[in-house]
Amino acid sequence: MAKTITTRYDVAEHLRTPEEMAAYLEACFEEAHGDAAFIAKALGDIARAKGMTQVARDAGLSRESLYKALSGERSPAFETILKVMGALGLKLHAEAVHVNSSTAQQTT
To answer: pTM score > 0.90 for this model?
Structure first.
């Protein structure tokens, strides 16, 4: 029986157009379930596809701090997310959803 050779999948290699990048990020928003580090990692994938050095320059961040912020190991500041989104040519948008008041989180 022949051995099967596998390689590590890197989504950044498949994000070639702005539309693909936006679709990927939108899918990640839907899957994140409030996990900011997951979104940061997705932005990191997109930044790698565009080139980290250029994204860092466009966002006004150092390359090292960009790697740390988008590693998925932490939740970066919202300001950083906005800078990176702008550098990537992406924007956030809001959509109204109906929330069942019995399942909504309550603060006391």
So the answer is: no
Task: Indicate the domain borders of the chain.
Answer: 12-88
* Confidence category of residue 108, pLDDT binned at 50, 70, 90: very low
Instruction: Please state, in angstroms and as integers, the Cα–Cα distance from residue 9 to each residue in 13, 15, 106, following that order.
Output: 9, 12, 40
pLDDT in tens, 25-37: 999 999 999 899 9
